[in-house]
Amino acid sequence: MNTIPATPFIASKKLTLSDSDWVRYALIGLTLGITGLFLVLPLAAVLIEAFAKGWSTFSASLTHPDALAAMRLTLLVALVTVPLTTVFGISAAWAIARFDFRGKSLLITLIDLPFSVSPVIAGLIYVLIFGAQGWLGPWLSEHDIKIIFAVPGIILATLFVTFPFVARELIPLMQEFGHEEEEAALSLGASGWLTFFKVTLPNIKWALLTGVLLCNARAMGEFGAVSVVSGHIRGLTNTLSLHIEVSYNEYDFVGAFASASLLAALAIVTLVFKTVLEWQQKKGLKAARQPVE
């Protein structure tokens, strides 16, 4: 009986492996090169420019009254928007993952809307509604209520761009876990709130923290929507990102890059915590999938 020679097959296999290795290393090198060029290098440039005139100038720029006012406003906006977004995200994820109802697909589409709409357009929408010449402008003026070019407008614009983050983190996870454990708790006499805190929350806690973290980072770094509704009033409606733009346009480069370094530090911290939370979430999912002996 004639046998098929093994040599051509082995050679072909080695060639295939070699090609695969070449492609792998080429893609890794390309990814690292693009990451270094567009992420690491700009970050290094921000830090170099921020400390270009020494620590004293850097600290003086951050302790300037306008910079401090911008930091306070940024923190205020985050403290208001993040809890509201968290409540909405949990409620929306619970409704979508646990119930079937008319308009469910529409609700999911609306949640994703801020990802597809430019933040500048979102700001213009609020100007159209609440501005002096907007739909509600005359009524607001009569009652001495100011939304556009004031803090409420900044909060509304920030809410628009941040409210999908928590919901999008929770929806797929809650759908994957199912609702058998919750039904078992309810059948044993647990109340709805007790079921949430003792059963649901432990299962979603890492994804919830990830969503809150991403929401906070976006709230503190948002520029487009806030720029439209803020009015750029120094010490009143300039967030930290708007303060960076004003400082740069006035050739205060150290002040601009010093403030930018704070947002860059926030981005790095967010990335580190996000990685840790995702690792914890994968660990929890792996443990949940293991059969109970």
What does this 3D model show about the protein?
This protein has helices at 7-50, 55-62, 65-98, 104-116, 119-130, 137-142, 151-162, 164-177, 180-187, 192-221, 224-230, 240-249, 253-289. The protein is mainly α. The radius of gyration is 25 Å and the shape is globular. The model is unreliable at 6-17 (pLDDT under 50).
- Broad shape: globular
What are the segments in which pLDDT stays under 50 over at least 5 consecutive residues? Answer: 6-17
Sheet of most strands = none
Q: Provide mean pLDDT, rounded.
A: 85
Q: State which percent range the strand residues make up.
A: under 5%
Q: Helicity range of the residues?
A: over 70%
The SSE order reads HHHHHHHHHHHHH
Number of discrete helical segments? 13
Q: What is the radius of gyration?
A: 25 Å
- Based on DSSP secondary structure assignment, what is the total number of beta strands? 0
Structural class assignment: mainly alpha
- Whole-Å distance between the termini? 53 Å
